Amino acid sequence: MKGTVVERATPLSRGFWLVATLLILVLAAAPWWLGRGELRLIAEFAYLIALAQMWNLLAGYGGMISIGQHAYVGIGAYALLILSLHAGVHPFLAVPVAGLVAAVMAAPLSRLVFVLKGPYFAIGTWVVADVLRLVMANVPALGGGSGESLTSVIVGVPAWEREAVIYWMALAAGVGLTMGMYLFLTFRHGLALTAIRDSEAASASLGVEVDRVKLLVYVASAAGLGLVGALIYLIKLRISPDAAFSIEWTVLMIFIVTIGGIGTIEGPIVGTAVYFLLRYLLADFGTWYLVVLGAVAVVVMLKAPKGIWGWVAHRYDLHLFPTRRRMRLGTKAEAAAAPALDTVANGAG
Amino acid sequence: MAAAIDTILQGVLLGGLYALFATGLSLSFGIMRMVNVAHGDLIILASYLAWVTVATLGMNAFAAALVVVPAMTVVGYGLQRYVLNPVLSDDPLPPLLVTFGLSVIIQNLLLEGFSADARGIDAGVIETASLALGGDLAVGWLPLLVFASAVAVIAGLELLLSRTPLGRAFRATSDDQTVAQLMGIDNRHLYAVAMALACAVTGIAGIYLAIRTTFGPMMGPSQLLFAFEAVIIGGMGSLWGTLAGGVLLGVSQSIGFRLDPGWGILTGHLAFLAVLVMRPQGLFARTRDA
Amino acid sequence: MSFLSTHKLEAGYGDFRALFGIDFEVAEGEAVAIIGANGAGKSTLLKSISGLVRPPPGSIRFRGAPIAGLSAPAVVAAGIAMVPEGRRLFPSLSVEENLLVGAHTRRPGPWTVDRVLDLFPALAPRRTTPATLLSGGQQQMVAIGRALMSNPALLLCDEISLGLAPVVVKSIYEAIPGIRADGTTIILVEQDVGRALAVADRVYCLQEGRVSLHGRPASLTREQITAAYFGV
Ligand SMILES: Nc1ncnc2c1ncn2[C@@H]1O[C@H](COP(=O)(O)OP(=O)(O)O)[C@@H](O)[C@H]1O
Ligand SMILES: [Mg+2]
Predict the structure, then answer these.
(1) Is C41 on the interface with A (CB under 8 A)?
(2) pLDDT, tens digit, 9 for 90 and up, residues A297-324
(3) How would DSSP label each residue in B239-270?
(4) Which CA distances in Å does A274 have to A20, A58, A241, A256, B204?
(5) Residue B245's domain is classified under what CATH number?
(6) Contact C88 B171 (CB under 8 A)
């Protein structure tokens, strides 16, 4: 394609990569020099980045705005429960398998939610998540509405090993899913995705297999969420339908991505940092941190819709993850194809 | 047999409440092409408003509407004009995220302000009085009143949409908002009026919800889902379809509850998904939105 | 002082510029045609005047007042109505309802539904017909009538002959004297150069966002027009 522009690595982004690599190595060694509390906090930081990245992939790159991604967190959690407690699979092994389970579930569920478009898709996914919650609440073998404890499957593992492995898994999820997404976007599918997000109709006419790529992204996002969901509940050790399929997970993903910057890889990392900061600062004030978080997200949407990172990147032309092999359709051709009066006066503001 | 008829009858009447939930959502779908994720939380907000009105002014539960409905109308106008209009465009993402944020804000403000305790409003004898229909059948006056209100609200709105200049401006804007502006229609104001209307109905819904059941700060999302399901089942673009959608949802839930109290909401969701798979455009879609 | 004037008008869409310093003037009561190739910027000029595209303040004056940057509804209230390219009727409204929406601003003046139906007798039997069921020519008549319903002092018409059979175009153009009879000023964007020259008091030719020629039809030669139109 003639108009493709590839932005290359800059000295700054190379410096960042160096620092990031060192940081990851230092963090990987953390079980030997940090206490349990700190490890848990870093693990939470890492898995929230992973969750946010998966929503970002779906909404920011795939243009599929879902308010029901907690479905896959819950599926991952219940996969872990069934595999480890009821099928005797080692809980550490059950975590990645839970990701697979979520992917397998996502394919048929996508047929249901893909019927709905745009904002209807958003709420439709929420209904599906609620269905899964209610179904699980009605399975007495899995503890019904009150759920089950996983403590028994993990007691055999020595304490240090348990903490360290869970920590490493969380770190791997955060780093791995971020990098995986980066590679996914840089090679092969990035171009198609960007094109689809920008205009589904135009990309269809350019021969991009819209449906196939969207399905792929949906399933990939579900797989990541399933894996992280299992990991989260391996840390929490108590699984109930209301908690595992709680909208809270999607709330976190959406706020983090919106605040940090939707459609950028850096955004979710920045957003997670903001979330931790707010939660820490408002720790003594009950759920006020959620009010503030929501208010920040709304203000960001109103004043800087590309989020904190989008603003920074635009202002300082900074791209730590130079993914943007953006396909630029000629403006003229694009405009000529558009209906005459639209695009301009469309805003109601 | 009587039990079956009773189940369906209760479900139909419950559908009236869902239709009231759904009407506001349906209006903003139809006119602004946007989904207000905070819709359910606005219903609950109205319930709390009603509760406060009754508690502080000592008003009758129904008279509280004199406070709640105007208040919600103002909330709706301001919300659309100053918060939602600025993010309205061809991109469905910003209004979704903004209303999603508002939803979480409203929930947690209610939680901080009123605690997680369940509340309710006592409306007096009407809550328990019922109309005997012969045999073992009886229907409560309150559900009847709710259903009648839903029919009245929808009939009123349909008249407004089809017979008045305002309604014509709504339909024109829904068809083509750019050209509507060329006709001198100020869409920012018009959208705000539409949301004001939607929130007025939400006010009524919130009062009835507060009278019928106990409520808490986190109940908004469920009401949103019910409202959404009623709209999609009924089909976009028709308020009578929305009523029918509400009734179908109510009956599905009622049957589920009868089978097992844990299944009520689930069977409602499943009915919705079944409609989605078999007739994605909804059961009574008017092709206005083609 | 002219009725409508633009001064060094620049306009576009986001980063894309479509008009480069347009100076354009219309006197009260005139009929002015704007011609030019596809993409020359004719529609953008009309959209700038009508407020669908927002040019910088000060670049457009109407009856002495600055109107650049006003919203489309405010421009209608000031007395400028537009017939958009491609007719764009409201599909879920009947013919009569489409016309009535045009009267939304309630500007005082002579136009009523009945008067529009007198102007376009072909519409009279279709008063309650849904707009989507009309023929292209009838839709164009409704689109013109809808704009007239705001009793404009200035009527902007964007390609009202587009895609219509010659006899239909002829019947639509026959209504123009009736519209001008009240003193309504008209700006016509027209690809059909012959037709434009026939009805207009003056013509402007645009080429790639600039005025490449203007003058009275009688004073322009075919060669001049061809050169201004195609830029050869
Ligand atoms: N909505 C739009 N967005 C972006 N560019 C547009 C839009 N509408 C028109 N253009 C571009 O502006 C230029 C002028 O277009 P226009 O005014 O519609 O030309 P004309 O009416 O003379 O055919 C063209 O290059 C066209 O591609
Ligand atoms: Mg044009």
Answers:
(1) no
(2) 999 999 888 999 988 888 887 777 766 5
(3) HHHHHHHHHHHHHHHHHHHHH-TTTHHHHHHH
(4) 19, 21, 28, 8, 39
(5) 1.10.3470
(6) no
CA distance C62 to C6: 9
pLDDT band at A338; cut points 50, 70, 90: very low
Q: C43 C-alpha vs ligand 1 centroid, how far in Å?
A: 7
User: Which tens digits make up the pLDDT trace of A180-220?
Assistant: 888 888 776 666 666 666 666 666 666 667 788 889 999 99
Structural domain harbouring B37: 2-115+141-278
Q: Per-residue b/e over C124-138, b at no fewer than 16 CB within 10 Å?
A: eebeeebbeebeebb
Residue A15 predicted with pLDDT over 60: yes
Assess if residue B56 is contained within a domain.
yes
Subunits next to C (3 or more Cβ pairs <8 Å) are A, B
| Mutant choice from B80, B96, B174 vs A, greatest count of A C-beta within 10 A | B96
Query: For chain C, what is the total number of helices (H) and then of strands (E)?
Result: 9, 10
Instruction: Classify residue C109 by burial, with Cβ atoms within 10 Å: 0-12, 13-18, 19+.
Output: middle
A343 lines ligand 1 (CB under 6 A): yes
Residue C61 to residue A42: CA distance in whole angstroms: 62
CA-C46 nearest atom, ligand 1: 17
Q: Do A331 and C15 touch (CB under 8 A)?
A: yes
Number of domains in chain B: 1
Interface predicted TM-score (ipTM) of this complex, two decimals: 0.93
| C209–chain A Cβ distance below 8 A for any pair | no
Q: Supply the pLDDT for residue C57.
A: 86
Three-state DSSP at C210 gives strand
**pTM score, two decimals?**
0.90
Cα C227 to averaged position of ligand 2 atoms, centre (Å): 20
> What structural domains and CATH numbers belong to chain C?
29-55+70-230 (3.40.50.300)
Question: How large is the average pLDDT for residues C186-204?
Answer: 91
Which residue, among A86, A56, A14, A50, has the nearest Cα to A267 in the 3D structure?
Answer: A56
